[in-house]
Each structure stands twice: as C-alpha cells, then as structure tokens.
Amino acid sequence: MELLEEILSRKNLNEAYKRVYANKGASGVDGVSVEELHEHLRVHKAEILEGIRTRKYKPQPVRRVEIPKDTGKMRQLGIPTVVDRVIQQAVAQVLSPIYERQFSNSSYGFRPGRSCEMAIVRSLELLNDGCDWVVDIDLERFFDTVNHDRLMNILHRTIADGDVLSLIRKFLVSGVMVGETYEETPVGTPQGGLCYAAHKPPNAQ
After folding, report:
1. Which of 31, 37, 166, 175 sits CB 3.0–4.6 Å from 61 for a disulfide?
2. CA distance 133 to 8
3. What does DSSP say about strands 176-178 and 62-68: parallel, antiparallel, or unpaired?
C-alpha cells in the first residue's frame, strides 16, 4: 500500500478523528467546531479525500492566537481548522512510527510514550553515574524560523511518496489569519494543533 493510501485508510482516519475529538480545542478560521466535525466529515469526506489524492486539497490558514508564557511574554499559536487537524493527525499517525526508529534514545520531547518526568529521571540516573552537568537549552523562536526547503529535504530522505510530501508542503505554506488579515508563511511551522496535542503522550502534562 502506498503511504498516502495508508494515511487515508478508513482505520487510520477514524483513529485520527477520535484523537482530534478527544483533544477538543477551539475552532479554526472556518468556525466549524469539534462537535460539528462528525457531520461535516460525513457530508464532505468524499470531496476531501478526492482533493488530497489529486493534490487539489488546500488547507485553510491557521487562526493566530497568543497565550502568556511563564516569562511574561506571549507565545503565538496557530489553530488549524478541525478538518485540517484530522488530516494532520492522520499523517502523524503513519509517519511517527517511521521516524521513531530514527530518533535518539536520549530524546524525550513530544514523543509517544515519553514525558518530561522520564527525562528528569534519566538526568538523575546520569548524575548518579558521575555526570556533573545538566544543560537546559531553549532555542528561541525555533518553530517560527524553520526553513521549509530544508525541512522538506530532510523528509524526502525517508519519505518517497510525492503525494505525502506535497500535502505536508501545503500545510507549511497555508498561511495564518491574524484577526481579519491574511499573512503568508514562507518560513516556520505554526505552534499549536499537532505541535502539541497530537504528539503529546496520554500521561504527559
């Protein structure tokens, strides 16, 4: 089975819908709520799937919101539409196991079955083994400055399905709505949507 068809399989899409519904969250720019998602998909599912398969599907811009950080500054989040969240979740469910095999065993962030608590426990184990330092690094505005071409090149090393790569690229360049104003997204990946909810382990805080 080609990768795109695995993503669009009934089983995978049903699981993606359940995850998005369970995560709840606000509506995107189209105003469709999580509670309205099931009926919306029932009416438009065939149209959406055909659009994806023919590379005509166009993700909608994410809705820009700001939330306060612990530092007192504001963090910008992008809220995709609930339909786009289902598609993103479906993609993540198929790609995550592929990339899990490539990740370092010392990596804990936003990975299924791993949590901040597990990273702390591992740090304590290393300290007890004689290590002297724990280094905490936060890359400022990392998500906002991701180069799309470099990201797509990295994905291309593993993902051979051009339809999947095309779909991911469309999400990257779908833009944001700040109030009533549309802004292009030539760089960066929006924080929000799958960046947190879809990859968060069930027991993570």
Report:
1. 175
2. 46
3. parallel
Arithmetic mean of pLDDT, 102-123 = 91
CA angle 169, 161, 18 (to 5 degrees): 70
CA-derived radius of gyration, the chain: 18
- Dihedral angle over CA of 107, 110, 114, 117, nearest 10: 90
Which is nearest to 49 in space by CA: 2, 96, 13, 85? 13
Residue type, 64: R
180 neighbors 188 (Cβ within 8 angstroms): no
pLDDT, tens digit, for every residue of 133-183? 888 888 888 888 999 999 999 999 999 999 999 999 999 999 999 999 999
Q: What is the mean pLDDT of the chain?
A: 90
Q: Is 7 exposed, middle or buried (0-12, 13-18, 19+ CB in 10 A)?
A: buried
- Cβ atoms within 10 Å, residue 41: 16
Looking at the predicted structure, is the pLDDT value of residue 190 above 90? Answer: no
